[in-house]
From TrEMBL, chains A, B:
Its cofactor is Ca(2+); Mg(2+); pyridoxal 5'-phosphate; Mn(2+). The lineage of its organism: Bacteria, Pseudomonadati, Pseudomonadota, Alphaproteobacteria, Rhodobacterales. Pfam families: PALP (PF00291). Keywords: Lyase, Magnesium, Pyridoxal phosphate. It comes from Frigidibacter albus. Residues 16-308 form the Tryptophan synthase beta chain-like PALP domain. PROSITE patterns: DEHYDRATASE_SER_THR (PS00165). This is Pyridoxal-phosphate dependent enzyme.
Amino acid sequence: MTDITRIEAAAARMAGHIRRTPLLSSPFVDALAGRRVLVKAECLQHTGSFKARGGWSALSALPPEARARGVIAYSSGNHAQGVAAAARAFEAPAVIVMPADAPRLKIDNTRTLGAEVVLYDRATEDRDAIGAALAAERGLTLIRPYDEVEVIAGQGTCGLEIAEQALEAGVTQADVLTCCGGGGLTAGVALALEARAPGLRARPAEPAGFDDTARSLAAGSIQRNASLSGSICDAIVTPEPGTLTFPILQRLCGPGLVVSDDEAMRAMAVAFARLKIVLEPGGAVALAAALFRREEIEGDAVICIASGGNVDGAMFCEALARFGTGD
Amino acid sequence: MTDITRIEAAAARMAGHIRRTPLLSSPFVDALAGRRVLVKAECLQHTGSFKARGGWSALSALPPEARARGVIAYSSGNHAQGVAAAARAFEAPAVIVMPADAPRLKIDNTRTLGAEVVLYDRATEDRDAIGAALAAERGLTLIRPYDEVEVIAGQGTCGLEIAEQALEAGVTQADVLTCCGGGGLTAGVALALEARAPGLRARPAEPAGFDDTARSLAAGSIQRNASLSGSICDAIVTPEPGTLTFPILQRLCGPGLVVSDDEAMRAMAVAFARLKIVLEPGGAVALAAALFRREEIEGDAVICIASGGNVDGAMFCEALARFGTGD
């Protein structure tokens, strides 16, 4: 079970390796949102997303013998880079199983971080079978992207920082909006806030059509998404909340918030113009919820996690061309 | 005279008002530059540039009676926003004299920050005469953009942070590249480093054709630029080094570095792809020098100040379209 003790242990293992990201703000963003907005800029984390926290936490928690044999992850995106970067730091072998049609840049980045990338054909090959065979053959440890105790603990360190930084900013009562896929970040942050800033409450934000967590929270049981593709917020599209994460979300989180793809892109434009940070669509949904769901949020202030910035120039510039400064 | 005592006094007045910006890095940037690169992300400062430091320092140093009468500045850009933001915080009137053909967005931003914007026609009107008349009539204090003791002290606080953050990162010997216009940032940072991190040396970076500071340092006397327009790095184009700043630069700085407009744009693309920050061309010249003048730099590490991010979407996307991830 992930708990505050495990989150603080992960934070101690990360010291000097994981960046304490800043809590940004702008009077222009406040004016748009109708209240004070504090933005935890996890896009500035190593590898461009909070996933570096979970990767570091998982690798650093492994017994040295297991770590020396290596790790394996399935990911076409941010989790791959988080695991690869941590493995490189520990000089541990890392195998990342990625679909052959993943963006070239993400494949190249993962390789440049020192991981062995194994490509498979989504149409004809079974990812899990390929991974299981490799893991058995080489004694690799599988690092799941969210349903993994030490990964949730690692993401929770972001919540420890928010608890401290919100207090420094004079905010003790607020919703903390997270960009939510499988719920690893949301669960970890919710646990950290429960222990260290009980006036702050985590709430998941998701793209429309892929709001499995919001619906699961409303229904009181795990609900699946009808589809697994078709959102530009690819980084946070998962089939359903995790079996480890959902009970934590259910106990601690407020209602989910849902935004459109266009609203996520408009939030990217606002972040460009007003905060000078680069967000990917999936990393902008929490800010989009703060900006465009003001009537679903209470209080004078809201905190949102800008969870990642791994976006290509074409998508980014489409957001700027369509939405200007987002006003 | 600006000295370390004045810089530390400015830092004390800023506490809680000016952001301690992060020192970012990426293995991809290191690989491109051929050495370790640490990037001081001043684009994340309030108002999107380091100019918020000088504005705050100058306003907070004024006698309360003078501050209550108000301040005036000539600027079409970052200095205007820095002064306006500080004046608003102190509830002091601020008048910003801007050319009528300044970008609409910059005029609007300055107004939204609470300043009174007075527009003049560059072709037919005399900016200084307009400003002097307003200042005399209302008792306003002029805040110059760089040749101003308390402004230099304010920019120097960026150097205090670099001294601490470089030590935390294990770097004690390195060049610190600054984006240099009139030399306020460079002079302030050089003074702070002299006192607090003597192994770090400031070096100005400038756009080709507007390298008055590099030529002045080489010649040992103030040299002017032949032209005052024609660079996309408009934020750091000034006629010549300041009379207060140049003696400081001459005593403390290493040789200047000069980059092309294209290299500045390529550095913007690298900062987008690898650091997830938004830089304007003038704010990217120091990073460009770190990336593309490696043979003019010595040592295992280099620090560069990414001084501002106030760029419009069209210019930014031109950089991404032309240079991709900058590799």
